[in-house]
Design goal:
Layout (H helix, E strand, L loop, with lengths): L2 H18 L14 E4 L10 E9 L9 E2 L4 E9 L10 E12 L2 E6 L9 E2 L12 E9 L5 H6 L4 E11 L4 E12 L2
Parallel strand pairs: 3-10
Antiparallel strand pairs: 1-10, 2-4, 4-8, 5-6, 5-7, 5-9, 9-10
């Protein structure tokens, strides 16, 4: 099977799954506001970074909701980074996992496998500020999904999506992350 045939088959299956999804509503109040938490198990080897707040913002830094997947997603993240040196360069990595709510299995989060290429990417090239600041600060994390437009067009519009962000420093094996659940528009 050629790459093009595999992509066509994957997109067709994704569209069938999207159409067959259960109508589960919006979990955790995501119909009216963004829901987030520091991901358990992502703070490893005494990484001293704590996420204090996450907000979706527009270009003027005003809160925006719901988010739009076809546009660049800007998140204003308030952190307390107690690391002793700033993360930067090739060792600073970002992994992003995207899930949709509701599937053939019922009302649960299902990974959107088409976004698998967003795992273990260079953080400085994929929306994280570099060098990553130390101490208390507000950073903007940008997520550009525009290269996934054909996939986004097949996803359900005005539906809950989950984004798991994990930042890591490969030289120290330290990481931290947060999970964001939001109402998202695909059109």
């Amino acid at each position: 099977m050629t790459w093009c045939e595999m992509l066509s088959t994957s997109l067709f299956l994704l569209s069938l799954i999207t159409l067959a999804r259960a109508d589960c509503g919006f979990p955790n109040g995501t119909d009216s506001s963004l829901h987030w938490w520091q991901s358990p198990g992502t703070t490893t080897f005494a990484a001293a970074t704590t996420v204090l707040d996450v907000r979706a913002v527009d270009s003027s830094n005003a809160d925006v909701y719901p988010i739009r997947l076809p546009d660049s997603i800007a998140l204003r993240v308030t952190i307390n980074n107690g690391e002793t040196q700033s993360w930067n360069g090739d060792n600073f990595r970002l992994s992003l996992k995207v899930s949709q709510y509701g599937s053939l299995d019922g009302c649960s989060w299902t990974d959107v496998s088409a976004f698998a290429s967003l795992v273990d990417t260079p953080a400085c090239e994929n929306g994280a500020p570099c060098p990553f600041p130390l101490g208390d600060s507000q950073i903007t994390v940008r997520t550009d999904l525009s290269s996934f437009e054909p996939v986004i067009n097949l996803l359900k519009n005005d539906s809950p999506y989950q984004f798991v962000y994990v930042f890591s420093d490969q030289s120290t094996s330290r990481s931290f992350g947060f999970t964001l659940q939001a109402r998202a528009l695909t059109k």
